[in-house]
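Problem: given the chain below (198 residues), write out its structure.
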Amino acid sequence: MVTRIPGVMPPNFSAVYALMFCAGVFFPTHLRWSIPFGVMIVTDLALNLYYQFAKGIDVFSPGIVIYLAANYFGYAGLVVLGRRFKPTSHFLGLLAGGLLGAVLFYLITNSVSWLLNPFHNLEYTRDLKGWIIALTRGVGGWPQTWEFFRNTLLGSGIFTALFAGAWKLTVAESPTEKGEEDHKGEPQSAAEPEEAKA
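Solution.
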């Protein structure tokens, strides 16, 4: 996904959160997990190779692999949250669901980052203060984590609105479905009961 390429978008401003949430809402059962997680596995592998060889970061260390697994747990939570909604849900309800998913993902992944501390950040002490720092300020040399949170909310909100809006404008309003809805309220003709008897 283009939004995951380093430097293309601000940090954490990504379509990933919306993709996972909307997959839960709109995708059929047999594609709900395979498509979004297939995309994530391929892009994560490419990103990890980039950071390993271009940036010299040991992304295949056990702590980072466990942290990455926690991200996938968060992604699964977004899909499950999406299942609480229906494709026919109100647009604003879907948008609120996408934003709620972003908040939950942020809390889960930053809490795991604080707990596992894969980069051995001194700021992440094992107490309430360390956890609050992980959720708000983060570590030196990086943007503050509240900025990542802001970008997560913006990305999730914008892309959820785009995905849900596109669905409602194309699939939900397709001529076939619209025609079926138009006929739902029509009274049966006099011939129909006779045909049913034959």
